[in-house]
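dude i think i finally got it to work??
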Amino acid sequence: MKIYLGADHAGFYLKEKIFAHLSKLEYDVEDDGNKTLDPSDDYPQFAFAVATKVLGSEDPDARGILLCGSGQGICMAANRIRGIRAALVWNESVARETRNDNDSNVLCIPARFLKEEEALTIIDVWLQTPFSRAERHVRRLREIEEVYG
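look at this
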């Protein structure tokens, strides 16, 4: 599975830890965030970079992981891209549900509110949870694309 990773300055250090963790697990990870900490960077550029890579990937299972301070801003920015289903996640249960029910393709992490261990557990659960393909969930996703997409 191809994973695109991005973060602004607030998520920079956690992004580095996540990159190492996913690489160790042998995921194909691409860092689309800054390579050095830049306190003047803005989250929309990283949300756009990751979202467009997820949608344009040759891997149909490609996903993105985005981080900013609260996770909110980067999630809002990513969801502006048609076809992206970005979810702000703060615990394992929400990670599982957003994959199972909503087929989220981008995970947004609130870097200022989670410890490294919590974030890595959330990511592992999110990556390992398949979409249920239950009829009601498929119908709702189709509605989003047809009506609001």
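The beta strands are 2-7, 28-31, 63-68, 86-88, 106-110.
im so relieved honestly
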